[in-house]
Amino acid sequence: MTAEHGLSRLFPLLLIVSFVASGCIFSREMAHTRGIIEEEIPGSEFDRKLVFSVGSRTLQAAGWLTSLVPDEDLEDVWRYVDDIERVKVGIYETKALPESGSSGIPVLSSMLDRGWEVAVQARDDQDRIWFMYRSSRDRIRALYVIVLNEEHLVIARVEGHLDRIVQRAMEDYRPFSRLAARP
Predict the structure, then answer these.
(1) From CA 26, how far away is CA 81, in angstroms rounded?
(2) CB 155 within 8 A of CB 89
(3) Residue 112: how many other CB atoms lie within 10 Å
(4) Would the pTM of this model clear 0.90, i.e. be above it?
(5) Tell me: the pLDDT tens digits for 114-138?
């Protein structure tokens, strides 16, 4: 076994230990967001499976560990992660989810009342998806991605200098870079 292979196998374990060791295995915010969804989709019910929060120091440590592995894709990922200050994730088991038929998906108006804006709201045969963001001074400071289906509810919140990440992604991804270059 090479040192690179050993480190790549050790990395997930170190990341999990850092989550648990940091004491960030509960988030009132994730529980509150789950409550909003249960209120706005009457009859829905979810049980917590995993909730964690990772701050910038843990992300920096993960970046340092991955820098030890010679992999260009990892280098690209950490160019983006550098502008992330916190990530919160809640994973819940769906206990009850009423059928909404062809009526689409709820707007989550309680989130709108708290200053969140909907970027994308979609539904396919299995999943309901919300992509919401909050801006301050014309900068994207936080985003929520919420995915709901008959098996799980996944809530992810990312905070940081997200406008920089969007700009970098547009520059890196060729079709977007042509659009960004236009006056």
Answers:
(1) 22
(2) yes
(3) 12
(4) no
(5) 999 998 888 888 899 999 999 888 8
